[in-house]
Amino acid sequence: MHHDHLSIFAVLAVLVAVFGSWTALDLFRRVRSHSGSARLTWLIIAALAMGSSVWSMHFIAMLGFDPGSAVSYDLALTALSLVLAVGGTGVAFLVAAGGDGGPARVVVAGASMGMSICVMHYVGMAAVRTSAAFGYDPVLVGVSFLVAIGAATAALVAASLDRSPLWRAGAATALGLAIVGMHYIAMMALRLTPLPGSEAQAPGAPPVVLALAVAAGTFFILILALGAALHDQRASVLAALDAGGAGYWELTLPGRQLIASPGAKTLLGLPPDAPVTQADVEGRLSPEAREERRKALEAALNGESDYDVEYGLIDGRWLQVRGRMFRSRTGRPLKLAGVILDVTDRHGAIAELNAGVRRQQLLMNELNHRVKNTLATIQSIAAATARQSQDIPDFRARFEARLIALSKTHNVLTAQGWDGAAMRDLLNQEFAPYAPNQVALSGPEVQLNAQDALALGMVFHELATNAAKYGALSRAEGVVTVDWARTEDGTVAMTWTERGGPPVSPPARTGFGSRLIRMSLESGMKGAVEMSYAPEGLTARLRFETA
Asked: Is the same domain home to 249 and 217?
């Protein structure tokens, strides 16, 4: 008995098979990239896409089948054919996406998918109700199985290689053509034998009903593929951005509606689950950043440049926002989209670096100033000591003692990072060589800057040296008492009192030490000094200002 196949249905069958194969293989890649419950979900989706597309291809092609009499379909067997296609491809994807099983695993998966496609076809053919008996050529039936298994295996191998989209498109096209080819080889194997009796249509679903079901299945594949792919791609991108501490945003055109991921909203300091507007973003920016944002945004929307700006937020943080214009094939702007990053740490590091450079320059200038002052002080000490010395050994002894005193003051300042020194520390440093019962210190804490500390260090050295040579510290029972206090005008008043030493008389002439004391206090610290040489001991009254 003769039967025909209309060409329009063959073309539609090819399109559905190729599209379904592309969708299923793309979803299969997602099966391999997930684990756990997500892997199972994508396995089910891939099986539904592949099984439904093969089933749709079969019945679209069957709409062109004309055995010369009316045709209807048994609903139970038709549904069973769909279940077999979905279940068989699901098993194939499960096997192929398993662990490292080598080529054998792919061969088993290909055999499962190819056999399920063929079984689906022959069960679907068994659902056909018409006034003819169906028989098959065994050789062509075997060929149809071989074509389906070979094509399925090749497609799974191609999908597992995970190469370029063009490569995957070729694999999907080959699989789709092979599925259609298997269908028509199986139809070539069909042998129709007319049945005696009426030519009336057998009970079952009419072709129009089946056509609607097939169309629904085709649309289901399309919606499933697009929805699943877009959702998974978006979720993967957002998860990757979130893991990297970044957020995603886009500004749709021409309406300029702002869309931001939860991560982007969190970076902006906005609720992650609430809608966001441009006004919300501007409300988080510092005043000077708002105008900068407007200018950069207009430049990007006008195509003048990409969007790449760093904004200061009102909470003190800094964000970097990058974006690029996306256009249609005709060049029409579609949206401006990009990422948002927290760069507060980078701004802080840059600020600290700049501050460090400024501090280093300041320290270099300060060091240069201090070295010059120290050299000038040493030069002055050397010249004055030379004038007061009787011979070279005497000069050496006096000069070394004063250099050591200057060095001790430097040690105290160095311990404080040259930010200053406590006056009590300078006195303790100077009285360190003497017995504790020979020294009594009393007064509040007075903090000196570096310059004042150097000056007072030399003053205390001269007073202590004179006490050791001629005054209280030259005898074991002698005592030096140093008292100081702050006056109402903020100056420091100090009294240096020596008792228990040899009788004291005013010096015949003013020595370098006395001149150094007066010069240090009167010139450098806006102070004054009064020396009282009573027989029982020296009393020096010092007054000076501190910065």
From this structure: no
